Amino acid sequence: MKQKNKVIKYKNKKIETPFFMPDATRGFLKTLSNDEIIKTKTKAMVVNTFHLYLQPGMKVIKKAGGIHKFMNYSGFLLSDSGGFQVFSLIHKNPKMGKILEDKVVFKSPLNGSWHELSPEKSIQIQFDLGTDMMVCLDDCPPYSMSKIDLKKSIIRTTAWAKRCKLEYERQIKKRKIKNNQRPLLFAVIQGGKHMDLRTKSYKDLEKIGFDGFGFGARPVDEKGNFLSKVLKETAELIDDKYYKFALGIGTIEHIYLCEKMGWEIFDCVIPTREARHGRLFLPTKNILKPKVINISNSKYVNNFSVINRSSDIKLLKENSFAYLNHLFKLNEALGQKIASLNNLEYYQKLMFYLRDKK
Fold first, then answer.
1. Fewer CB within 10 A of the terminal residue: the chain, N end or C end?
2. Could you tell me the pTM of the whole model?
């Protein structure tokens, strides 16, 4: 059963579920200023702990006063744990690091330097970033892993979540953060395609105590099949008093399906990455079925219709498909900006629709 919309209130900000967060991986959305992002009605974004730790580094961000000041962004920011990136790095190439019981050791893809990431360090980095929502470091295995190894993975994920929660409480005390200003903390449910493992993972994590829970690992199997049944049953496992975070889910179809299951927080690179490749989501009578076009197609060379007459964004109301086609053919950043604004605005209108129809 679907729950009612929830409202996250933090300091002087609030956001209603369900909501979608574009991935500002390295502290920015490519080609877009913060004012432009706000015009799309985007209220929250995700920043990447792994990438920001490596570049520009925590020394710079701490000196700036935290990631909000560094980015000059006042909206909600969620930081991931860095685990997905580190584990993906190692699983793809074992020479890039090693997974130990107490931490992960990895080689920087930037300069080859060696680093360690433990549950405590991940939480410390996220507090130094100063984000509004944080995620526990988890063991993120590929679906090709055996069930025996997946079981080891969820045991490690639970052990690390306990350490994350202890470090979280230490940081709250150390930084003298008031109860009403504590950032949200999410744990990640693992277990691959096996619901008995996912059930154990959730029950063990719930005992520790978190604000919400995320769906761990990719939402598709090794063949690219969407894990509808596993996602649905995992959402049903989680008590409705917690926030339910569908990490990395970002196609319009999948967001709609998962929101019906009870998932209420989404993030993905899709709207902005697709935009930079010239794919635009255009409104139709059914917001769940946008017209998807490739603006580089030659049929738009002489199409002087405006991109979106009903948009709230000036660049979309005043520029034509022909002009955008021209910009993309010349690889002009303005074209990527216009396309990104279009797709972000579409996604936020989708979220308004999902919130209002409850």
1. N
2. 0.95
